Amino acid sequence: MTRHLILGTAGHIDHGKTELVKALTGTDADRLPDEKRRGMTIDLGFAELRLGDLQLGIVDVPGHERLVRNMLCGAMAIDLALLVVAANESVKPQTREHLEILKHLGIEHGVIVLSKCDLVEPHWLDCVAEEVRSLVADSPLAQARAVGVSSLTGQGLPELRAALAEAAEHAARSPRRQQLQAPFRMAIDRAFTVEGHGTIVTGSVASGLLRVGEEVALEPQGTAVRVRGLQSHGVAVDRVARGQRAAINLVGVSLEEAHRGDVLAPPGYLTPSCRLHVALSLNRPPMRHASASDPPPRNPRRKISVRVHLGTKEIQATLRWLEPRGDDFDQDGSVLLAELELSEPAVCVWGQPVVVRSQAPVATLGGGRVVDPHPRPLRRRATEEVSAIRELASESPRARLASLYFLRGFGELGAAEVVRRGGILGEWESLRDSLVAERVLERLPLAPGRLLHVHAQVLERAMTRVEQLLAKYHQRNRTQAVFPLSVLHKIFSGSESPRHTAQWLAAVVERMRSQGRLTVTPAGVALPGAGPQLSKPQQQLYEEIIETHRRCGCAPPAIDQLAPTAATRRSVVPKLVELAIAQGHLVRVCSAWCLHAEVEGEVRRTLVERLGESSFAVRDLRELLHVSRKYLVPLCEYLDRIGFTRREGDRRTIVGSGGGIESQPDRLPEEVSS
Question: What is the spatial distance between Cα 403 and Cα 455, in angstroms, rounded to a whole number?
């Protein structure tokens, strides 16, 4: 079975990369007329090299300093590198920059070629080899074989093929090959049309496989397209897989809609975002002499304008560090977390390589990996979240899954998101269950047969916040018994997860009740032992209000008539009425007046006994309840509202027992509105 890998060239301009590819494969990777006229590679070139059961798709990149953006476009998906250094010129600026880029991309396998070796003496070749070895000493290519080659005479080509076969064998066993099991993903590096076929796009398949006839989405636009045909290196195939070069004939999209930088993936798999969290390793700064007059280091929290290379796309962005800079910030190899605010939406996955370059002068600042392709905005001083992002950059799938749940809050996690945001393939549910067993995750029942998995710290943080809100509410509202649940919904719907807030908040409240941290009533919630603290005059007035409503039956006084004389008593009456409602003594019929709970229950019993299944109008209740229309109309509307009666025109029918006690008004107390 053929194994597929992508081999990318790297090196300074005019060091013989394209000639070397031609000598190895017989293919001239320079395909543009300008390239042939100027004798210089401008854009990406492609070729194929077979080494036993290994098929290498070669991406030949330009070496000019002004074309590093094109080099990055081709290098992002490679598995191993061919670092080319001309023996007659030795190490040059783009040799260094391309090597830094390979390091940031995590390329661990490759071969070093000392090209044009026929132009120098053996002792000079030895000196160049020593300089190159010094250059790559602290890079992943430190152990790579170095081969002297002449593309003109063929010297060293057999040795180069053997070295490439050995390096490719190691690369084929690397963890990158696991991406074969991930969903299909390919960044487009070319888009063109062929008469009679329509739109064709090419790229290096980064993960998964794709078959003829399948539907994919063109991202970030989200355009649905169908695969009409597939080719790999000019040969028609029925499928392409991770590590192959692919030319895809698409149906459903015009050439004007497909561009370099777009991505093909299964519909719904990738989510466009203008914000990324990345782990960056910075380049070593230029050597200079330190002195007392040197300016201090830049504030790591200052925003920096940069160019971001992601897949085959270059995007303007703003970089902000997520953690303070350590003493080794300016040293090679230091890794820091950063947030990138992109100027336009992009799609990516966990672990995808990213390279950051400065705006002016243009230079490579550093690179690394995406650790969260679709993060939520971070609060100021969100130290716990930053720690979770650091764990998300871990090599441990268990740590990454736990971090995903922490950062997700009370939101649901699906299989596609676990792959996209955590790079976790296979049976992740078993890993989730082990986290539950270790009490890292908690299960909250939302409905029969439906569980929500929540990080234990997220759950505890929500419960603590509820307790703090209630403590503040009880302290400032000594005449109130409970905190309305509707107010809790409003507060939390703007924080953890706006969707399905009522469901998970109800589960949180139930968990707190079962732990003895809350008392729950139909009107709201309260801390255990907390309740109204009334003065002696307030307690007396409270009892008078309840007794007045009991005595007046179905014709109670309006709330603003309960204390018409004393201003101090008048101000506290509405609060005492709310307390009586919360404690179940009164039932609010309308905004103006209430009924005693016993009276309200007696009204419903009387209607059932006297009217049964008969329909009735408002006027039919006058003799039955002995009250005027002033009370009857609001009372009938209340009975409709609680589901006791159903109105049809001007008549009503009894349909249920009704709720009896309604929730408190959906309003936000001033004490917690901030």
Answer: 8
